[in-house]
Design brief:
The protein is of the alpha+beta class. The chain folds into two domains: about 5-55, Ubiquitin Ligase Nedd4, Chain: W, CATH 2.20.70; about 75-110, Orthogonal Bundle (Helicase, Ruva Protein, domain 3), CATH 1.10.8. The chain is about 25% helix and about 30% strand. A hairpin with a 4-residue loop joins strand 2 (about 15-20) and strand 3 (about 25-30). The radius of gyration is 27 Å and the shape is elongated.
Length: about 110
């Protein structure tokens, strides 16, 4: 009957731990039974049993705070001249492009 409906179920036998990661927590399931269910090309997983624990997410090193982008006045002047725009627009384009002169000029010329 499942074949007629386009369903196929297989047990995924080599799984020993399942980790569900959220922004503020992780659910760890050790020793679960995992079944793969394929329904008309859509793959789903069913997790049953096992020992469930919850923990805070493991993070890599804390990301460093981004330093504000310092854009030299010469760069702003160059972009303004090349794109034929005012200094404010040139500075905004440089900030948007992360200080990339060529990208800022192209961005302003294609608007």
């Amino acid at each position: 009957m499942m074949k007629q409906m386009g369903m196929k179920m297989d047990e995924v036998g080599d799984v020993h731990t399942v980790i569900l990661q959220g922004k503020n927590r992780e659910i760890v399931i050790e020793g679960p039974t995992v079944t793969s269910i394929n329904v008309q090309g859509q793959k789903m997983y069913q997790i049953a049993g096992g020992r469930e624990t919850e923990r805070k997410p493991q993070t890599e090193a804390e990301p460093a705070e981004e330093e504000p982008l310092e854009i030299p006045e010469e760069d702003v002047l160059l972009v303004a001249q090349q794109a034929n725009v005012g200094m404010e627009k040139a500075r905004a384009a440089l900030e948007q492009s992360g200080g990339d002169l060529a990208q800022a000029i192209l961005m302003l010329q294609t608007r």
